[in-house]
Amino acid sequence: MAEDWAKLAELMSGRMKEVAKGVPETARGFNQLKQVSGREGALDPATKSLIALALGIAAHCEGCLAFHAQAAAKHGATREQVQEMIAVAVQMGGGPAFVYGGMALEAFDEFAG
């Protein structure tokens, strides 16, 4: 379990950059998808970050928790919104989602400062 979510996000970014060196087209495609899907639209970026954070909980991905908790905090999501999102994730994902939901809240709290 991560204790320093900012450090984990930095570590994961470094790992992804290393992979991108070997598969630059894949990395460019992923980054373009990330940019397009994250734009303001019918859903605002904070809501999209909360959705991504919920999917990180469902996938049991600590890197996803770090990246998307950081994005949720950056885009102005509130702690209450994160907690409600975790409740939905637990309803859908059971005990493992409860465990990862706690981790997601910890990550969000760190990034929200």
Describe the model:
With 113 residues, this protein is mainly α. It has a single domain, classed as AhpD-like (Up-down Bundle), CATH 1.20.1290. It has five helices and no strands. It has helices spanning 5-22, 24-38, 45-59, 62-74, 79-112. The radius of gyration is 14 Å and the shape is globular. The relative contact order is 0.16. The mean pLDDT is 95. Residues 24-100 form the Carboxymuconolactone decarboxylase-like domain. Keywords: Oxidoreductase, Peroxidase. This is Alkylhydroperoxidase like protein, AhpD family.
CATH topology term: AhpD-like
**Named CATH architecture:** Up-down Bundle
Give the overall form. Answer: globular
In whole angstroms, the N-to-C terminal distance is 20 Å
Report helical residue fraction: over 70%
By CATH, the superfamily comes out as AhpD-like
What's the multimeric state? single chain
| Structural domain count | 1
Number of strands: 0
Low-confidence stretches are none
Strand content is under 5%
Sheet/helix structural class: mainly alpha
**Number of helices, counting only DSSP H or I runs of 4 residues or more:** 5
Name of the top-level CATH class: Mainly Alpha
Rg result: 14 Å
* Major sheet attributes: none
Q: What is the succession of H and E elements?
A: HHHHH
Average residue-wise pLDDT: 95
